[in-house]
Specification:
heterodimer; A: alpha/beta; six-stranded mixed β-sheet; 6 helices; 10 strands; about 35% helix; B: alpha+beta; six-stranded mixed beta barrel; elongated
Chain lengths: ~230, ~375
């Protein structure tokens, strides 16, 4: 079974003369432990695709399936539940809760999904150890470096053992060396856990860490180098 | 909820502005309430002290104790009304009293009464009186003779009673003869014939409704106005006006407290839009985020109330005794509940904004 199946998905903002097509008949399949890099210029529709795949937006047309979940017709409440249990997000600049420690930031995701107690605590500790942050569990984001913050964000995304992890420009705030380290980490973490991932990036130097690269231009998906 | 609580405990400085403003508003609310209660208690104590449930005035007195006259025949008619158990006379003279060793006159209410009430035992022999404890501040002592009014009528204090003032003047509770002597010598214009009192105090039968008895008295006895004790208290000069003025100020202060909380949380929500967007994206519902806000509003207002109460108690200790501030537990409870409800309503103003935060806003750029 694919981790993500997007079939002929369109997303149109506005209506009539002011309608803007952000995603135009996009079809994409991501395998169970596949890492897909999504590249494209600004305004090409990367964010819209990521948002639809993660249940943040509903498509105007087409079908979206994440694992066994047909999310196309989900209402807002169902999408909220779906996001907290089956999808992991890593945002630009980490976006951690500033007054919580690294471990508590991971536990926020568990708490929202109703996973509490010693098991959640153990998983958070194990994830942080695996991400090389065993000594930083009690540090707040302000006391962590940019790379460490991004690693905590990865830990948060993996906390609830999601079927799909979506990375939004995870290296945009990092220098090349740190960016490569983070991409390496994403690759190894996702592969070792058998989780699928889509990594949105505009930095083509990072794409070789992905199993496959998909380009998007004017809302249309195509293989690298192929005409849109 | 857990996130909201941790923000409160780990970033308390964020909430200092709202907490500080609410603490000051609590002090203001408690002082205003204390002043209202103090004024009310000092003005109404003599009527509140009565165990009688109905007070009967002459109809032309416009329910004023000082203008009213109830003669013996009227008293008899009142006693015959159904539901009336007993009738006793009551009157007051507001005068100044010379206290030995004091240069200033003490303001006193000399009461003439026939029956013991909730605060004052049965009348003492002629020439003696119970004095309200508030008169201690004027230098009056037990066993001392004070000289009442311009005629300097002697009255000897033989006991203390508390909470019996009338229109802010401490009471001297004397028997009929002493009271009439004081009145005749110092207020000849207000002197009353023997047996005539200013008002009649009516004790009703155990299960009789005082309002019904009052109504029966008015319909069966000509030229009288019968009020229940509560109505008689409200009819005292200035009581209603004071209550409505202070209640308006207290109400306005609650509105200001609500606005402070509303503005504070509106700004805080604006500041947190990014964070709320991220939390929504990873699965937090609007309800969860709003509950966090409510928790914070509750904690801030409860903390401000505790701190404000401590400050008010400290301030009340240094307020001069002439200012009749009374801090009552009931008033504190009303203020606490009012403040917390106001804070919760104020924080609710931000709910709409939270609901409208789009989780997709957490993902951005292209």
């Amino acid at each position: 079974m694919s981790a993500l199946e997007m079939q002929d998905v369109r997303k149109v903002y506005g209506s009539g003369d002011t309608a803007v097509t952000a995603l135009d008949h996009a079809t994409l399949s991501v395998g169970d432990d596949e890492v897909v890099a999504l590249v494209g210029p600004s305004g090409s529709g990367k964010t819209t695709l990521l948002s639809i795949a993660g249940g943040l937006l509903s498509p105007s047309e087409g079908a979206v399936k994440v694992g066994p979940h047909e999310i196309t017709a989900y209402n807002r409440k169902e999408l909220t539940r779906f996001r907290r249990e089956f999808v992991g997000f890593v945002f630009q600049g980490a976006n951690l809760v500033p007054f919580l420690t690294a471990k508590e930031n991971l536990l926020v995701a568990a708490d929202l999904a109703g996973r509490k107690g010693k098991q959640a605590d153990k998983r958070a500790r194990e994830l942080l150890e695996g991400l090389g942050l065993a000594e930083r569990t009690r540090n707040t984001p302000g006391a962590l470096s940019g790379g460490e913050r991004q690693r905590v964000a990865i830990g948060r995304a993996l906390m609830n053992e999601p079927e799909l992890v979506l990375f939004d420009e995870p290296t945009s705030a990092l220098d090349t060396k740190l960016g490569e380290q983070v991409m390496e980490l994403i690759h190894s973490e996702v592969k070792s856990r058998g989780t699928a991932a889509i990594v949105v990036t505009h930095d083509t130097r990072m794409t070789h860490y992905a199993d496959r690269v998909v380009e998007i231009t004017d809302g249309r998906l195509h293989a690298p180098g192929a005409a849109a | 909820m857990k996130i909201a609580w941790r923000e409160l405990t780990r970033k308390p400085s964020r909430f200092l502005t709202a907490g500080g403003a609410l603490t000051l508003l609590t002090v203001l609310l408690l002082l205003l309430g204390g002043l209202l209660d103090g004024l009310y208690l000092s003005a109404t104590a003599a009527i509140r002290a009565q165990s009688a449930q109905v007070v009967v005035y002459s109809a032309d007195s416009r329910d004023s104790l000082l203008r009213s006259r109830i003669d013996p025949a009227t008293s008899q008619q009142i006693a015959e009304v159904d539901g009336v158990q007993s009738v006793s006379g009551f009157g007051v003279a507001l005068l100044g009293a010379r206290v030995p060793g004091q240069s200033d006159l003490a303001d006193v209410s000399v009461f003439g009464y026939e029956a013991a009430n909730a605060q004052v035992p049965a009348p003492l022999p002629t020439g003696q009186a119970y004095a309200d404890e508030s008169l201690k501040a004027s230098g009056i002592a037990l066993g001392q003779t004070v000289w009442v009014g311009p005629a300097r009528t002697p009255v000897t204090v033989e006991g203390w009673v508390s909470d019996t003032a009338y229109l802010f003047q401490g009471g001297l509770w004397a028997n009929e003869e002493t009271w009439r002597t004081v009145l005749n010598e110092n207020r000849p214009d207000a002197a009353l014939p023997p047996g005539t009192w200013q008002v009649a105090l009516v004790d009703t039968h155990g299960n009789a409704d005082p309002a019904r008895v009052a109504s029966a008295i008015e319909s069966q006895v000509p030229e009288v106005s019968a009020l229940t004790k509560e109505e008689a208290i409200a009819a005292l000069p200035g009581v209603k006006e004071q209550a409505s003025t202070f209640t308006s100020i207290i109400g306005t202060t609650f509105v200001v407290a609500g606005l402070v909380v509303a503005l504070f949380f509106a700004l805080l929500t604006l500041e947190r839009i990014g964070l709320f967007g991220v939390l929504k994206a990873i699965g937090a519902g609007s309800r969860t985020l709003a509950a966090g806000l409510v928790l914070q509003a509750f904690a801030i207002s409860a903390g401000a109330f505790v701190l404000g109460t401590v400050l008010t108690i400290g301030m009340a200790a240094v307020i001069p005794p002439e200012v009749p501030v009374q801090l009552l537990p009931r008033r504190a409870l009303i203020t606490a509940v009012g403040l917390i409800i106001t804070a919760l309503v104020g924080s609710a103003i931000s709910f709409r904004r939270i609901i409208r935060i789009d989780p997709a806003s957490a993902v951005g750029g292209s």
